[in-house]
């Protein structure tokens, strides 16, 4: 099929190998990591093979989409489909983090108070954990992982908050520059966004090292340690993915793949980055401050 500028024509690609390659990569990765965690020596190399297949699939599949877009095969209907797909993807990410925030709130507001004797937990406290007082943060009545110290919200976490908020501003400026066809300004502010994300990740890595080495705050530090690293770790993973996507978009902008009217690839990554910003604000408030 040639060009599809006609609004009544919807581009349907020919059979693609990439879904099968992605399935193979996911299957191999899961088999590898599950056996690695269960102590089988061959699990680790199989995991990395699966990861390599997934990376190969991502480069190949997104490369095909980029080539189709540049060739002019997409019209407004396809653009709408992409936008709907990105909206549902971000909604799934919202639910992903909602589950983890829900675990934090449940442990902090219900489970720990019950163990301390509040509400229906009077007998639980009297018979199992007599003398345990519900406080937060805690590693539980069994003091799992030993005593630990928490990370102050007003040091690195506050700095990282300012970095991500600033990155939300820089990517917005870049978007306006794209719509104004100012490529130099676009590349500068988009590059600044990537840099701010990388600096955020550097400080988060430094914070993790400090927590493990100096504060005895680890994944094994009871319910607080597990929820802390689960929430901040998955968020860090999303920042990493976002920074990679922004880098790809920077190169596409440098090659002139977008114009003021057709640049959903840029918009999709910008939406994702703003989502990451909002999640961090929730983390800063409920994990570090309160």
Which characteristics define this entry?
about 290 residues, mainly alpha, Helix Hairpins, Four Helix Bundle (Hemerythrin (Met), subunit A), 2 domains, 8 helices, about 70% helix, about 0% strand, disordered N terminus
Task: Explain what the structure shows.
- The protein is 72% helix and 0% strand.
- The model is unreliable at 1-5 (pLDDT under 50).
- The protein has helices spanning 18-37, 43-70, 76-115, 122-127, 156-179, 183-214, 222-254, 264-289.
- The protein is built from 8 helices and no strands.
- The protein starts with 17 loop residues before the first helix and ends with a helix.
- The protein is mainly α and 290 residues long.
- The chain folds into 2 domains: 1-74, Orthogonal Bundle (Helix Hairpins), CATH 1.10.287.70; 83-289, Up-down Bundle (Four Helix Bundle (Hemerythrin (Met), subunit A)), CATH 1.20.120.
Structure summary:
The chain has 290 residues and is an all-alpha fold. It has eight helices and no strands. The radius of gyration is 23 Å and the shape is globular.
Itemize the secondary structure elements and their pairings.
Blueprint: H1 18-37, H2 43-70, H3 76-115, H4 122-127, H5 156-179, H6 183-214, H7 222-254, H8 264-289
């Amino acid at each position: 099929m040639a060009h599809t500028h006609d609004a009544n024509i919807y581009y349907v690609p020919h059979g693609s190998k990439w879904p099968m390659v992605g399935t193979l990569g996911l299957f191999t990765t899961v088999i590898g990591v599950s056996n690695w965690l269960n102590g089988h020596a061959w699990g680790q190399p199989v995991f990395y093979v699966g990861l390599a297949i997934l990376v190969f699939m991502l480069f190949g599949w997104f490369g095909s989409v980029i080539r189709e877009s540049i060739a002019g095969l997409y019209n407004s209907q396809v653009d709408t489909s992409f936008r709907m797909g990105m909206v549902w993807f971000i909604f799934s990410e919202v639910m992903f983090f909602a589950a983890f925030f829900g675990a934090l709130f449940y442990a902090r507001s219900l489970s720990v108070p019950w163990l301390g004797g509040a509400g229906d937990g009077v007998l639980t406290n009297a018979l199992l954990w007599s003398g345990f007082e519900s406080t937060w943060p805690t590693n539980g009545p069994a003091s799992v992982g030993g005593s630990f110290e928490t990370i102050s919200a007003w040091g690195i976490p506050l700095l990282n908050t300012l970095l991500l908020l600033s990155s939300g501003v820089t990517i917005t400026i870049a978007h306006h520059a794209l719509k104004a066809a100012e490529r130099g300004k676009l590349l500068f502010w988009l590059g600044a966004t990537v840099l701010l994300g990388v600096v955020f990740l550097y400080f988060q890595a430094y914070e993790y090292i400090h927590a493990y080495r100096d504060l005895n705050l680890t994944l094994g530090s009871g319910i607080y340690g597990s929820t802390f690293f689960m929430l901040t770790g998955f968020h860090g993973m999303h920042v990493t993915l976002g920074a990679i996507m922004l880098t790809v978009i920077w190169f596409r902008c440098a090659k002139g793949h977008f114009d003021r009217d057709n640049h959903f690839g840029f918009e999709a990554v910008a939406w994702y980055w703003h989502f990451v910003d909002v999640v961090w604000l929730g983390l800063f408030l409920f994990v570090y401050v309160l």
